[in-house]
Specification:
This protein has 10 helices and 10 strands. It is α/β, with parallel strands linked by helices. It comes from Alkalihalobacterium chitinilyticum.
Length: about 250
């Protein structure tokens, strides 16, 4: 029985991790997630990742695998997870994490691989791997410092302490906290983004992501290059025409 589900509605794809009781990132979950992400169709404009149930978004890796790990198998384990999470980060489409409940260890690392995060007020966040005598291995030591700064990231990684949703919002781990359904709020954002020029949104994602690893001067060149590329698209012409004609644009990804 599948533990990761995928559905598309109105050009918005929703990936749901459904592995009770806490949606742990066991081998089957990671493999199914990789296949789904790899097969996301071109006509999907936005992707949402969420967890089933009301206990956890994803509570982390499957600790049952840990007792027999060696140096070699440990590297293999985390590189597999890193590769899958990088697939998510590298998607052309924007990816939104809709978090309700625990987002711990690999669960937080999965959320960090998304473009932005929306959480319910009861959610909790943390990288508690040091409590097990290991470190975050699915990208936590790299993505969290880039998102919130090295000092705060080190404090959280070294201590393994949890943050409330409000605390996670204050330090910049999540972009929005809601008293309502995180998935409903994520869908609202996905619907807004889906109405924008899909080629423009994807180019903007590339410009931001590439620019983070460049100097400002290099990043400005990257931005200008993508801008120029968009200027030769039919979608640019349609967007401008719709603006002057005071109507909604009909983008065709051309």
């Amino acid at each position: 029985m599948a533990k990761v589900k995928y559905e598309v509605e109105n050009q918005i794809g929703t990936i749901t991790i459904d592995s009770p009781p806490v949606n742990a990132l066991e081998k089957q979950v990671l493999e199914e997630l990789s296949v789904i992400v790899n097969d996301i169709a071109e006509d999907v404009n936005v992707v949402i990742i969420t967890g089933a149930g009301n206990k956890a978004f994803v509570a982390g890796a499957d600790i049952k695998d840990f007792p027999t790990l060696t140096a070699e198998t440990g590297v293999e384990l985390v590189k597999k997870g890193q590769q899958i999470f990088q697939q998510i980060a590298d998607l052309e489409q924007p990816v939104i994490a809709a978090i309700d409940g625990f987002a711990l260890g690999g669960g937080l690392e999965l959320a960090l691989a998304c473009d932005f995060r929306i959480a319910t007020s009861r959610s909790q966040f943390g990288l508690p791997e040091v409590k097990l005598g290991i470190l975050p291995g699915y990208g936590g030591t790299q993505r969290l410092p880039r998102l919130i700064g090295s000092g705060k990231a080190k404090q959280l990684i070294f201590s393994g302490e949890f943050l409330s949703a409000e605390e996670a919002y204050k330090v910049g781990i999540v972009e929005e906290v809601t008293e309502n359904s995180a998935l409903d709020e994520a869908r609202k954002w996905a619907e807004k983004i889906s109405k924008r020029g899909p080629l423009a949104v994807r180019a903007a994602k590339k410009a931001v992501n590439e620019g983070l690893d460049q100097s400002v001067e290099e990043g400005l060149h990257t931005e200008a290059t993508y801008f120029g590329t968009l200027c030769e698209t039919e979608d640019k012409n349609e967007g401008v025409a719709a603006f002057f004609e005071k109507r909604e644009p009909n983008f065709t990804r051309k």
